[in-house]
Amino acid sequence: QVQLVESGGGLVRTGGSLRLSCAASGRTFSNYAMGWFRQAPGKGREFVAGISWSGDNTYYADSVKGRFTISRDNAKNTAYLQMNSLKPEDTAVYYCAAGGWGSGVTSRSSYGYWGQGTQVTVSS
Question: pLDDT below 70 — which residues of the chain?
Fold first, then answer.
C-alpha cells in the first residue's frame, strides 16, 4: 500500500502561482511513477502531468505545457506540481497518483494509488 497526501492548494488570482506537494508513505516511493490529475465541477478527471520513477521522463497535458512543472524528490518521498501563469480554467480538485504506467502515463487505470485531492481555485 502507498498512502498519498496532497497539500498546497488554495485560492489564487489569474496569473499567479501555486506549488502542490504529494507526500507518500508506505511502500518504496521510488518504485512508482507519479501523476497529477484534476477534476473540475461537472467534468471527468483528466491527466495533468506525469513523471517516471527516476524523474528522468516527464509528460504534460497540452493545456498545461509550458506553465506547469512536475518533479519529485525520492529522498523526501514527495512529488510536486509547480503551477505558474494560472488561469480560471485551471480551477479544479487536484489529485496525485502512484502507479506503474501499465496502460500509459495519461490513463487513470495506470495508477493504483490516489490521494484525497486538494482544491485549486483561480479567480479572474
Answer: none
